[in-house]
Amino acid sequence: MSAALVVLSGGQDSTTCLAWAKKRFAVVDAITFDYGQRHRVELACAVEVARRAGVRQHRTITVDSLKQLGGNTLTGDTGAALGASGAGGLPNTFVPGRNLLFMTLAAAWAWQLGTRDLVTGVCQTDYSGYPDCRADTMVALQQALRLGLEAEVVIHTPLMHLSKADSVRLAQAEGGLELLAWTHTCYAGQVPPCGACPACLLRAKGFAEAGVADPLLVRLAG
Ligand SMILES: [Zn+2]
Fold first, then answer.
1. Which of 10, 25, 145, 161 is the most exposed place for a label (fewest CB within 10 A)?
2. How far away, in angstroms, is 90 Cα from ligand 1 center?
3. Hey, where are the domains in the chain?
């Protein structure tokens, strides 16, 4: 029986990937990482999305090492506005090593589950310049995991080359719009979303270009 493990943050992209995986694999599990992110609402969204999608197992794993290393706006160690320019010209929302660590931990659980297929919503189009979201990084990491686990690990990245609008269209095609009503994107951590932060603006642009109403806003407008 085909099985996949989806790395689920509770955001739009990983939720779209979950819908994608549900269409392609008989069994889907999901893993979420609690790395001390400032906005705890994301974790609650991941639980809700996983439940609504009917995944077999969903686990939230605590990874407090990134917060211990400090210096990042997403983990609340600096008071800077999320999305502003940070070290090395990268946005200050870049958490060094985050995806490398998460994919490795996901692969470790997948190995125990007997699952070889991992799914992640990383994307190098329309993205903020995170080097650990690039296709090259994921291809190299897949190779490292294959060697290190002696297993035919496959990292699926369905959103890698999609624009935000294409990503919305994909969610629609995969029947995932309902799930997007339960996601969190806002960098300000607000529900309803603030509508003004870089994350809200990018999300709004994607839905507008795709000509689709954001199910989250529709739901909250009740
Ligand atoms: Zn916002």
1. 161
2. 19
3. 3-221
Span from the CA of 6 to the centroid of ligand 1 (angstroms)? 25
- What pTM, to 2 d.p., does this model score? 0.92
Q: Are 217 and 182 in contact (CB under 8 A)?
A: no
Distance 205 CA to ligand 1 centre (A): 13
Residues 205, 164: contact at Cβ < 8 Å?
yes
pLDDT band at 66 (very low <50, low <70, confident <90, very high): confident
The CA 193 to ligand 1 mean position distance, Å, reads: 5
Looking at CATH, the fold of the domain delimited by 3-221 is given as: Rossmann fold (3.40.50)
Q: How far is the CA of 39 from the centre of ligand 1 (A)?
A: 11
Largest CA distance in the chain: 50
Closest listed residue to residue 207, CA positions, set 180, 174, 186: 180
Taking only the tens place, the pLDDT of each residue in 22-57 is 999 999 999 999 998 888 999 999 999 999 999 999
